[in-house]
Amino acid sequence: MRTTLGIDLGTQNIKVIFYDFELRQTVASASSPLNLYQDDCGTAEQQAHWWTKALRDALSRIPQAVKQSVIGIGVSGQQHGFVPLDKHGEVLAPVKLWCDTSTEAECQEIMERMGGVQRCIELTGNKIVTGYTASKVLGFKHRHAEQYKQLDTILLPHDYLNFWLTGEKCMEMGDASGTGFLNVKTREWCPEVLQAIDPDRDLTKCLPTPRINNEIIGSISTFAAEKTGLPVGTPVSIGGGDNMMGALGTGNITPGNTTISLGTSGTVFAYSDQAIIDDQGNIAAFCSSTGGWMPLLCTMNCTVTTELLRSMLDVSISDFDNTIALAPAGSNGVITLPFFNGERTPNLPTAKGCVLGLDSQNTNRENVLRSGAEGATFALKFGIDELHRLGLTTRQIVLTGGATKSAVWRQIVADITGVEVNVLKQDEGAAFGSALQALCAVLNKGAINQAFLGEHYIMDPQMHCEPSIVAGSVYAERYQQYLSAVKAISAIYQ
Ligand SMILES: Nc1ncnc2c1ncn2[C@@H]1O[C@H](COP(=O)(O)OP(=O)(O)O)[C@@H](O)[C@H]1O
Ligand SMILES: O=C(CO)[C@@H](O)[C@H](O)COP(=O)(O)O
C-alpha cells in the first residue's frame, strides 16, 4: 500500500486522510475537534498549540501500518489567520482567525492611509476586509506593542503546521493572496499596504517569499516523527489555503468549474487563468495554488448558522436532515439572515443574525432550522450571481465541506442556484486536495494537471442533485425577499 496524507486545519476540527492513490480510495481518516475563543467584540482566536495537539490526537487514531505507507504529505488550512513568531520560532500571541472581526477599525485605517478603497483594489486587487491578515498585523502592533517589537516571522495557519512538521518557514501563493498585502497581479508583496501597516519597519523581512510551484518544502523532522508516528524524512509539499486545496480536491483546476464549500464559512469559487478584479470588492481576487487565480466569495456564517440554531432548538446532527425535511422549500415564509458572527460579504462586520417572517402558524423548529440552511445558501447564491457579473459561468457545482453530508441541504443548493450539484467520492475537498498536491509533488515533479489527476476525480452518483423547477420558483421569490431584508438590516448594522 502507498498513500499520501492530506491534513486540513479547519476552524471546527482538524482532519487527516490517507489516500491510497493506486486504489484511488481513502484507507484511513480521523478528525479531532478544535476550540474557538470568541467574545462579543468580534474576537475569534485559537492557540497554535491547540492545532498541533489536535493533529497528534487525530494521527494517534491511525494504525501505524497506514502511517508507514505515506510517501508524501500536504497541509491545507483555514485562510487569513495571523501566526506571529519571534526569532526562536515561538508563537507570540493567540492566533486571530479569518472570522475575527475585532480589527475592523484597522481595515479602515489601512485603506485610508493607502488613499481609499479603490486605490487599495488598484494596488493589490483586493480591498482589506474584515478577517484578512493585514488588519490583524496592525491590530497586534496597536494592542501588543512589546510583542510586536519581537515579531520576526508572519505565518498563516497552514504555514505554521508546515513549520512544526518540517522546521521550514514558507508561504504559498494562494494562501499569501489572502493576507491583503499581496499584489495578486504581480504576485509580489505590496509595499504600500505594508507601509500603511507600519511606515517605520520593513515588514517584508518578516514574510517568507511566496512560492508558486507545488514543490516539496522539506520533510518530517525527527521531532515531528516522534510526536506523530509519521516516518521521519517523509516529503512535505507546500500545501495551501483550505479553499485553494478545496479547489484542487474538487477538480476545480480549469476554467468553467464552480465549487461551493459548506463549512464553518461558506465559500463559492471558480478557477480563472487571469486575475479577476472586482471593483465592488465582493469577489476576492485570490490566486489559486495551481498557477492561476481563484475568484471567491466568502461568507462567515455557513454551518455556524445551522450549528447555533441546532443547538438552540435541541436538534442532534443525526436528526438535522429529518427535521428540515419536515419544512417545505421556503420554510413557510421564515427567512434567516445568517450574520451571527458579523459578516464579510455583504460587508457588515457588526451585523447580527436575524430571523424574520415568524407568525402564529409557522413558528416551529423545522421552519426555523431549515431557514438557517436556506439563508446561508442564499448568501452563496449571491456569490454565484457576482461571479456571473464578472463574466464567469457555472456548468455544475461541486460541493465540499462538512454539511455536504446533508442530503436535504445538497438539494437546497441545487434548488436555490438552479444548477446541478455533484459531490466527489473523496468528499473532504481540502484534505483530499492537499493529498493530491503531495502526490503531484512526489510523483509528477509538482505539475498539477488534468492529465495526471483526472482519474482521481470520481463523482458519487448517489450524491448528485438536479434542481427542481417547483422549488426553484419558490426560492426565486424568497431570494428577492432575502436581498431586500439584507438591505433593510444593513441600515441598522452599518
Ligand atoms: N450530516 C450533517 N448535516 C448537516 N451539517 C453537517 C453534517 N455533518 C457535518 N455537518 C456540519 O459541518 C460542520 C463541519 O464542517 P467542516 O467543513 O469540517 O468545517 P471546518 O473545516 O470549517 O472546520 C459541522 O460543524 C456541522 O455543522
Ligand atoms: O476566510 C475564508 C476564505 O476567505 C474561510 O473560508 C476560511 O478559509 C475558513 O474556512 P473553513 O474553516 O470554513 O473551512
UniProtKB/TrEMBL annotation:
CDD domains for the chain: ASKHA_NBD_FGGY_BaXK-like (cd07809)
GO MF assignments: ATP binding; D-xylulokinase activity
Record keywords: ATP-binding, Carbohydrate metabolism, Kinase, Nucleotide-binding, Transferase, Xylose metabolism
SUPFAM superfamilies: Actin-like ATPase domain
GO biological process: one example: xylulose metabolic process
EC number: 2.7.1.17
Chain ranges of the Carbohydrate kinase FGGY N-terminal domain: 4-249
Pfam families registered for this protein in UniProt: FGGY_C, FGGY_N
Annotated Carbohydrate kinase FGGY C-terminal domain residues: 260-441
Catalytic activity from the UniProt record: D-xylulose + ATP = D-xylulose 5-phosphate + ADP + H(+)
Family named by the database record: Belongs to the FGGY kinase family.
Name of this protein: Xylulose kinase
Gene from which the chain derives: xylB
